Amino acid sequence: MQIYFNENMNNIQFKGHRIKYTNEQLSELLEPLFEQKTPYKLIMTSTRLSHNVINKWAKEVKGMSANKLYKKDNTYDKNKLKNDLIKRRSLGFTHKEIAELYHRSPSWVGEMLKKFNITINRTKLQVAMEENIPRMIQEGYTIEAMTKELGCGHTQVLNWIFKTYNKYLKTLRQENNINIKVRA
Question: 104: Cβ–Cβ under 8 A, 6 or more apart, which residues?
Fold first, then answer.
């Protein structure tokens, strides 16, 4: 790999040529980013390098794909991670807050909680939903009536119903022959 320079050797030429870097130049640029556990998409956008260029460099210099290199640099001691997750969840940290600490996504946090079998204490709303929504469905409550009684939003009620029954409310009512009543 090489880079094109003009006569002054100061400015990169952009005359329709790709900019080419040496592996040494890429190492200077990329190694600190991988060491700092910078998210991979941020590495690509901040350096303006394509995945193919980064991957080729990783294979030639590090002997592994960029994906493996990124995961290697982002591995954590399992016991330390498990204890940290337990501590942060007990303090009330959200998935998003924990994810930001580890430079990961909230779904990664959820996966780790499942992997380590860490249960999350249920909120008062979750307990109220478990105790009341099945009864409300049978009694023909509307979504508006449910949200009013539970003190939450439409989305939370609909999501709970779908996660619990794996069906939408309309389908659930049709299958169980439940008439819809307007209740306030």
Answer: 74
Looking at residue 5, the DSSP 8-state letter turns out to be B
The two three-digit tokens of residue 35, written as one number: 């060491």
CB 43 within 8 A of CB 35: no
Tell me the Ramachandran region of residue 37: left when phi exceeds 0, alpha when psi lies from -120 to 50, beta otherwise: left
Amino acid at 103: H
5 φ, ψ (degrees, to nearest 5): -125, 155
Instruction: Concatenate the DSSP letters of all residues of 79-116 into one string.
Output: HHHHHHHHHHHHTT--HHHHHHHHTS-HHHHHHHHHHT
pLDDT per residue rounded down to tens, the chain (184 residues):
444 444 444 444 444 456 678 888 888 888 888 777 777 788 888 888 888 888 888 888 878 887 777 665 455 677 888 888 888 877 767 778 888 887 778 888 888 888 888 776 667 777 888 899 999 988 888 888 898 988 888 888 888 888 888 888 888 878 877 776 655 4
133 CB-near residues (< 8 Å, 6+ apart)? 146, 150, 157, 160, 161, 164
